[in-house]
């Protein structure tokens, strides 16, 4: 994997009077898990669309290594967007086309605990299971960056926790660069190597904080809560962004 540099000098929508993003510089280290935390409407969707190459109407540049290009992305949305007329396995096979390897799909299904459900159609999946399929689908294409836009926001707390743990397990087995958007600071601390706090109107990076909690302790809610309290105390600037 390659380091990615995102420099957005200005992104202003044609009908808007002020920029949505200004002077935003983000460096994504190879295989790093980054959580973007910011208030509603701060421009996260705009940013992800620019990184994905869906919006080219901005002043700035994206560098993948030394190349001016867009990274190959896997996109995981709030809605898993599975095709209802295809089984779990067929939904995964679809993104791989002719490059598919049955062994890779089997391994991904196993890590995400979906082996038994591979012939099931999406309507019979729980919300947590369908999120797990969408995660497999995104990892399966081996992207240079995985963009995750509040993927667990509609899950209840125990299910979100289980899916987060499986996501991290998969990411540890198959390291990828991840950019995960969330409003939930506890979720961000449980997942991230590095937190980037974003302000609104225009979006700018306000603080960047490395999460010092060992991966083996990320399931410990006391450790997460204690670091959250410490963050809020030592970085008053982030309180207004939550
Ligand atoms: N097509 C558009 N035309 C004009 N302004 C837009 C357009 N899309 C977004 N904006 C503005 O750009 C800013 C960022 O919007 P964006 O949807 O990227 O934020 P967001 O952080 O993803 O929001 P949310 O957290 O609600 O999903 C907002 O002020 C929004 O009103």
Structure in words:
One of its GO terms (molecular function) is ATP binding. This is Taurine-transporting ATPase. The chain is α/β, with parallel strands linked by helices. The chain has a domain at 4-72 and 145-241: P-loop containing nucleotide triphosphate hydrolases (Rossmann fold), CATH 3.40.50. The protein contains seven helices and ten strands. The strands form two sheets. A six-stranded mixed beta sheet has the order 6-7-8-3-9-10, with helices on both faces. Strands 2-1-4-5 form a four-stranded antiparallel beta sheet, with helices on one face. A hairpin with a 4-residue loop joins β9 (194-199) and β10. α3 (102-111) packs antiparallel against α4. The radius of gyration is 18 Å and the shape is globular. The mean pLDDT is 93. The structure holds adenosine-5'-triphosphate.
* Nearest-integer average pLDDT: 93
- Strand portion, in percent? 15-25%
In the CATH hierarchy, what is the superfamily of the domain at 4-72 and 145-241?
P-loop containing nucleotide triphosphate hydrolases
Strand order of the largest sheet: 6-7-8-3-9-10
| Helicity level | 25-40%
Extended strand count: 10
CATH class of the domain at 4-72 and 145-241: Alpha Beta
Count up the helices.
7
> What does the oligomeric state look like here?
single chain
Q: How far apart are the first and last residues' alpha carbons, in Å?
A: 32 Å
GO molecular function: ATP binding; ATP hydrolysis activity
Protein name: Taurine-transporting ATPase
Keywords: ATP-binding, Nucleotide-binding, Transport
Pfam families: ABC_tran (PF00005)
